[in-house]
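Priority: medium. Attachment 1 of 2:
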């Protein structure tokens, strides 16, 4: 792929993922995420060519300009978008696959002083929310979602969502089973209002999921007359 084609692709991805982008001139002049990617591509080429100090200087200059620190040794794929970007840190052995999106405050960091692979690998299509920290030589599966401010220290499977500190995987299979169970309760569930508070796979707090599950279980057990499952679900949300 030619340098010009890659440059155009880096511009196009901004329009794809940021509805605030209004013109190519605006992207080229005012988008730090775009600047950081362009500077990194130059720094990475210098790094691989053996010009280590010059690569680090180029990377350092990009950090000063954008507030985004990407080590020149990091590998970044095509159509990667860094939105806002301030405070993003990408370590030397990090690998970011095609079509990934990173928001501000994201860290792809290491957990050891070893010289080998010590930073994360993001497979294609990963989205990392603002402030998330992904630490160590772990793998984040294709199209996975990392919630804002999550701290991820273990592998995340393809298409999964990880949230919390330390990050936990939301279990979409268990959620479907829960919804089926509540549907089987029929009129009792409708009377109590459970269908209105069913947890979707987009729920961003596993602890809340657990509490909702306890409420659901209690709904068809022996309970006091004043037990109001609908109200409890509301205050948990």
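Attachment 2 of 2:
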């Amino acid at each position: 792929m030619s340098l010009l084609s890659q440059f155009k692709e880096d511009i196009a991805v901004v329009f794809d993922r940021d509805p605030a982008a209004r013109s190519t001139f605006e992207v080229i002049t005012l988008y730090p995420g775009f600047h950081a990617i362009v500077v990194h591509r130059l720094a990475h080429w210098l790094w691989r060519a053996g010009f280590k100090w010059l690569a680090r200087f180029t990377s350092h200059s990009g950090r000063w300009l954008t507030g985004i620190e990407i080590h020149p040794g990091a590998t970044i794929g095509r159509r990667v978008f860094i939105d806002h970007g301030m405070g993003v840190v990408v370590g030397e052995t990090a690998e970011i696959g095609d079509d990934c999106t990173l928001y501000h405050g994201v860290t792809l960091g290491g957990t050891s002083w070893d010289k080998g692979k010590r930073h994360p690998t993001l497979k294609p299509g990963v989205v990392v929310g603002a402030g998330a920290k992904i630490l160590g030589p772990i793998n984040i599966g294709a199209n996975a979602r990392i919630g804002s401010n999550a701290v991820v220290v273990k592998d995340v499977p393809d298409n999964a969502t990880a949230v919390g500190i330390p990050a936990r995987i939301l279990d979409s299979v268990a959620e479907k089973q829960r919804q089926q169970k509540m549907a089987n309760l029929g009129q009792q569930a409708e009377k109590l209002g459970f269908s209105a508070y069913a947890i979707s796979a987009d729920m961003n707090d596993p602890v809340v999921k657990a509490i909702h599950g306890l409420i659901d279980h209690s709904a068809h057990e022996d309970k006091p007359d004043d037990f109001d499952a609908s109200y409890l679900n509301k205050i948990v949300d």
